[in-house]
Amino acid sequence: MASEPKTPAPPIELAEAELAKSSFEHHESNVEEDEADAAMMRRITWKIDLRLLPLCVFIYCLCFLDRVNIGNAKLWHLERDLNMHGLQFNIVTLVFYIPYILFEIPANMIISRIKPRYWISGLTFGFGLTVTLCGLCTNFGGFLTARLFIGVFESGMFPGFLLLIGSWYTRRQVGARLAWFLVANDIAGSVSGLLGAGLGSLDGTNGYSGWSWIFFIEGAMTCFAAIIAFFFLLPFPKESTFLTPEEKEFWLRKLAIENAHYEEDKMKLNGVWKALLDWKLIATAFMYLAVCTSAYSITVFQPSILSTFGWSSMKANLLTSPVRIASGIVSVSVATLSNRLNKRGIFVAIGFCVAILGLLFTMLHHDYRVRYMGLYFGAIGIYIAQPLVIAWGVAQVAGRTKRGTLTAAASSLGQVGGIISALIFPNSDKPYYVPGGSVCVGFAAAGCVVCLTMWFFLSMENKMRKAGKRDHLRSLPQEEQYKLGEKHPDFRYTM
After folding, report:
1. Major facilitator superfamily (MFS) profile domain spans which residues (predicted)?
2. CA geometry: angle at 391 spanning 383 and 404, to 5°?
């Protein structure tokens, strides 16, 4: 690993010296900050929140909207106009995820080498333009090709945003911020139903069906967001200019002390490979797969499920929105509570259990009102778990390479859930979609088991470190101790 240039007292070297004195006692330390430092911490955090989160939420909201609007488009003559039959709709839904999965880790290696605003704005414009052109497709093959390109462009978005947000906040802060970021999914899910109803009502205007207008307008909105991102998206902390020199030095030092890691400038292939072998990363990725299998199923196929209640396309689109509004409110509220308590695992497990309950109601009960209530429980539970799974995983590893690899690998495996969801809800399983619902329940149950297993072993490791059973690592030179990251005996895993 390359060392930092030996220039006079750069912030990261000051952080290293202070880190040694603090013995890696980050957010769990009992050392109290003086009032000046606490005030500085609050002021800088507020400035970062205002500059980073709203723009990230806005862009990713449009990103997610472009991904799932195919479910709304289906209700406005998409299959009829493109002469799609059998499983062809399911195929164009899942094919998006193939390039998405393949390119996520390489994408995070690229974003660590260039400014995020160049990379993210370029990707945003690419998939926005592709979505817009989807509205001009006239056959299954053309639409399939467009969906592939959407997956290519969008592959770097989610892991890139997670890496950028994770680089700006301490381990304790990042959970609530990721929840606010991922509420973009709920906003998109809510808006998707409203836009699907509104834009779909343009059906026949200028000779285009309602599904074409959905793609035309939503894709153009995304292209506009790309222009905003190019001018206003923040870089990584070390390259930032909106903080004063004093604030920047303070914040870099705080990040190094509280996150307890040496911040590499670039992700390198050997570091990525080592990170992929970490069991904590594998467990996080599997939990995220379990989350995404249900999340994509609920998001993409909810309009189809509601249409089995005998509702019109307009009503089915409109009544997807309250479900996502409720899940967004609960998700952010639980993440904020989790942040204050500094607990993650228990809330992830609760989220999985609530989702299982809701999915069982939706697929097993015959009363449409109970089934609709089940969709609320399913969405609320799974979107409680989604941000906390990522935040929990990020809190257990140190360094840009590990964090970048974890977010990309978890997201990649999560997209396998999108492929699964696209295959398990064929039209032939109407009206209850029992096979698809059963698969989602199985993944949620497995995710809960992995969550509890990870919680148990990390808890045991914390006890061993408290008992001094890892103290032999203190005999290493100070520089080597600094590079131990989460393996340092004073590091405590977040529960």
Report:
1. 52-463
2. 120
- Could you give the CA distance from residue 182 to residue 390 in angstroms, rounded to a whole number? 10
Q: Does the model's pTM come out above 0.90?
A: no
Q: Give tens-digit pLDDT for 262-285.
A: 455 566 677 778 878 889 999 999
415-434 pLDDT per residue, tens? 888 778 878 888 788 888 89
Cα separations (Å) of 191 from 61, 69, 216, 218, 428?
A: 9, 10, 16, 11, 28
By CB neighbour count within 10 A (0-12 exposed, 13-18 middle, 19+ buried), where does 325 fall? middle
| b/e burial code for range 256-267 (CB count within 10 A of at least 16 → b) | bbbbbbbbbeeb
Helices 345-364 & 279-307 angle (0-180, nearest 10): 30
List the one residue out of 337, 322, 449, 395 whose CA is nearest residue 172: 395
Angle formed at CA 383 by CA 378 and CA 386, multiple of 5 degrees: 130
How far from chain centre, in Å, is Cα 159? 7
CB contact at 8 A, 170 and 57: no
CA angle 9, 10, 16 (to 5 degrees): 85
What domains appear along the chain, each with residue ranges and CATH number? 32-487 (1.20.1250.20)
Query: 124 φ, ψ to 5°?
Result: -60, -45
Task: Tell me the pLDDT tens digit for each residue of 73-97.
Answer: 888 888 888 888 888 888 888 788 7
Tell me the C-alpha distance between 211 and 375, whole Å.
25
b/e 412-423 (16+ beta carbons within 10 angstroms → b): bbbbbbbbbbbb
3-state helix, strand, coil in the chain (%, to 5): 80, 0, 20
User: Residue 486 gets which letter from DSSP?
Assistant: G
- Which three-class secondary structure state does DSSP give residue 125? helix
DSSP string, 206-223: GG--HHHHHHHHHHHHHH
Give Cβ neighbours of residue 362 (< 8 Å, ≥ 6 apart).
305, 371, 374, 375, 378, 437
